Amino acid sequence: MIVLKDLDQIKHDLNCYINHDKAEFLPKFFKAVPGGYGEGDQFIGIRVPDQRKIAMKHYRNVSLETAQELLREPIHEYRFTALIILVYKFEKATTEQDKKNIVDMYLRNTLYINNWDLVDVSAEKILGAYLMDKDRNILYELANSNILWKQRIAIISTFYFIRKNEFKETLKMAKILLHHEHDLIHKAVGWMLREVGKRDFLTELKFLEEHYQSMPRTMLSYAIERFEPELRQKFLKGLV
């Protein structure tokens, strides 16, 4: 049952941290302008540390229904706060059914997880963590969709596997998204490949040797950011 009092109180407490200068800056930063990837999103200028403080100090134990309603709010900071709460609830869940309920709700509401920060704060810690010992077909459904944010959820979710030294899914996602048109996917794939390389340089190197010539420049640049300068230049110049 949704407790509207809780929902209204969370929003009231968040509103105490509104910063009008940030509210003016954030739509530009998150491309919530006509033609931008975040077009139509609304910001009220609340800093992330303040959102985390409100979520974790006072509202981490609100009902799942209340968190869902907060996630469906038009204000970006409300949705971010909802995802902080969901991550906490998932990490503290004690039964598989409770975890499944959170994941199912997460997947039902991907429409509202519609900017890179919202994806990045939640995908790995909820969906990735849940799928660690389960069938991962949902990642392929997301990656093969035509929705930017679902595709970013797919690749960022694999960060959880990377941290456990499992790289197979990341490399498969990278192949699926290799020729994606959007810069935000280029950055996400390159970032995940770089994270693979931090743990297993040869695995990343082999993948790049096979695919770097057809990679978008941004994706490649992110992937080789930590390479030795000489090797990095060879990749950038197509001399590998």
Q: Would you identify the regions where 5 or more consecutive residues have pLDDT less than 50?
A: none
Give the distance, in angstroms, between the N- and C-terminal Cα atoms. Answer: 59 Å
Question: What is the general shape?
Answer: globular
Provide mean pLDDT, rounded. Answer: 96
List how many beta strands DSSP finds. 0
Task: Explain this structure.
The protein is mainly alpha-helical and 240 residues long. It has helices spanning 4-15, 20-29, 48-58, 64-71, 76-92, 96-108, 116-120, 123-131, 137-143, 148-157, 159-163, 168-176, 183-199, 201-211, 217-223, 229-236. The longest helix is centred in the middle third of the chain and has 17 residues, at 76-92.
Summarize the structure.
It contains 16 helices and no strands.
For the structure shown, list the relevant keywords:
mainly alpha; single chain; 240 residues; globular; Leucine-rich Repeat Variant
